Prior knowledge:
Blueprint: E1 2-7, E2 14-19, E3 22-26, H1 32-41, E4 51-53, H2 59-62, H3 65-72, E5 76-79, H4 80-89, E6 98-101, E7 108-110, E8 113-119, E9 128-134, E10 137-142, H5 150-155, E11 161-165, H6 170-174, H7 180-187, H8 195-204, E12 212-216, H9 225-235, E13 243-245, E14 255-256
Parallel strand pairs: 3-4, 4-5, 5-6, 10-11, 11-12, 12-13
Antiparallel strand pairs: 1-2, 1-14, 2-3, 7-8, 8-9, 9-10
InterPro entries: Metallo-B-lactamas (IPR001279), RibonucZ/Hydroxyglut_hydro (IPR036866), WalJ/YycJ-like (IPR052533)
Domain Metallo-beta-lactamase: 11-168
GO molecular function: hydrolase activity
Amino acid sequence: MRFCSLGSGSRGNATLIEAGNTRLLVDCGYSVKELERRLQLVGIDPSRIDALLITHEHDDHIRGANAFARRYGVPLWATQGTLRKQAGRRAWHADVDLQPISSSVSDIKIGEIQVTPYTVPHDSAEPCQFLFEASHKRFAMLTDAGSITPHIVSILSSLDALFLECNHDLGMLHNGPYPPSLQARVAGDHGHLNNRQAAKLLESIHVEELQCLVAGHISEKNNHPDLVEGELRKAIPDLNERLALLQQDSVSDWFDIN
């Protein structure tokens, strides 16, 4: 299994996961044209994507999903709450293959990848994140969550790779350009994880098998890569080359999970 980021941040998010002949796209926060350009940079033909998984209905995660799914005939998976909320804002194309994720379903098998959706606290209709398993390897994503719940800790135990939100530094947020109302939203229990929260999560889970830790959704106004790296290395001092920080405007390398 391997994965790469096509972009991560408040202006757009998309992540690609591949195992064998199966390719999944998580979120589509870019226009179809821009997503096609980014996919080309990592050597992937859009028509070879097997499913599109949406975490929630905020524009930086869903902006191009409707058009992309329609153009390439890709099944679109999202929670029922996300599908309903988005339909109320902008109707789904009639020929898009919508696959509702039921709260009663524990996992989904798509090709060679088992996908486990799990709930997170965020200020959207019915947000979720995903755990991916293939060939006895486990990779999870956790972004757009305002706090760490016991359920999250349970899901993220014993991973081989983790994509973890490090959205803001609290000091930079409180002294930054955002008005108080937006600061409260970002820092709230249904907002975004700060650097210290991310580090505390790492201290709460088994990281012995962690081959790769990727920090993402890093605010360009309320955070700095040095602050992110400093907090995460406090939690796992021997991270060394296992740590990578994602950027908004460029695709990442492929991260292999062996």
